[in-house]
Amino acid sequence: MLEVKQINSGYGDVQVLRQVSLSVQAGEIVSIVGANGAGKSTLIRTIMGTLPTQSGEIRFLGERINGLPSHEIARLGLAQVMEGRRLFGHMDVEDNLRIGGDILRDEKRSRENLTWIYGMFPKLAERRRQLARSFSGGEQQMLAIGRALMTSPKLLLLDEPSIGLAPIMVESIFEKLPEINARGITILLVEQDVHRSLSYSSRGYVLEHGEVVMTGSSAELLADEGLKRAYLGL
Ligand SMILES: Nc1ncnc2c1ncn2[C@@H]1O[C@H](COP(=O)(O)OP(=O)(O)OP(=O)(O)O)[C@@H](O)[C@H]1O
Ligand SMILES: [Mg+2]
């Protein structure tokens, strides 16, 4: 579904990603794990086209997407949940969700998505007329995920859904991933929380200083001694 081939990208003269290659098959949940500053958000920005590639190629469903404007990439079926969430604080829950759905131009589908999302996150349904800025971090994260799902994405890119949340809240977000995946949505999960994100995915890539340094099944990565020492505090 997604093929990233030897991309280089960064900010101005600063190169962050170096020859990064990875792939995601339709139906998978794949993790990209790495420490602060490894380049995880930069990778997501590059895939979504908000940051240009310096070289390399990104293909989505066979089509080259690097070089396309972000809104066209989104229209092809990619949606991101950004780190820090970026909601419209002055708007209520339902309006935030509706804005996500606008890209579909399909009122029926939009209503179906809304019903599904409210079913998955009842807290959002209870508070559909509450302003987003009054929400706790966990509720905002649910809303940000809901907004991305409103676009009926084929591939959902999640940038550190655990960031700044209490462990119990993190768990209640992560446990929705299989449900989202079961609806036919492929997931690329970017996380510092190595153990949790690998537990919820079948495969992973380890990013260090902008380079993929390791890849394998989640079981292989979780059993790797070097990785345990570096990321799992063992
Ligand atoms: N807008 C920017 N301009 C210049 N450099 C940036 C910018 N954003 C990030 N960087 C640099 O790019 C590198 C990778 O940052 P990035 O945000 O991709 O890391 P990350 O893996 O997402 O980290 P975190 O886990 O802290 O979110 C860092 O050295 C960072 O300082
Ligand atoms: Mg980041």
List keywords for this structure.
globular, alpha/beta, four-stranded antiparallel β-sheet, 234 residues, binds magnesium ion, membrane
Structure, briefly:
The chain is of the alpha/beta class and 234 residues long. The protein is 38% helix and 27% strand.
Write up what this structure looks like.
This protein has 234 residues and is α/β, with parallel strands linked by helices. It has helices spanning 40-48, 70-75, 93-101, 107-120, 122-126, 137-149, 167-174, 177-182, 194-199, 218-223, 225-231; strands spanning 2-11, 14-24, 29-33, 53-60, 63-64, 78-81, 155-159, 186-191, 203-208, 211-217. The strands form two sheets. A six-stranded mixed beta sheet has the order 6-7-8-3-9-10, with helices on both faces. Strands 2-1-4-5 form a four-stranded antiparallel beta sheet, with helices on one face. The longest helix has 14 residues, at 107-120. The protein starts with a strand and ends with a helix. The mean pLDDT is 93. Bound molecules: adenosine-5'-triphosphate and magnesium ion (MG). Magnesium ion binds next to α1. It comes from Noviherbaspirillum sedimenti. InterPro entries: AAA+_ATPase, ABC_transporter-like_ATP-bd, ABC_transporter-like_CS, BCAA_Transport_ATP-bd_LivF, P-loop_NTPase. This is ABC transporter ATP-binding protein.
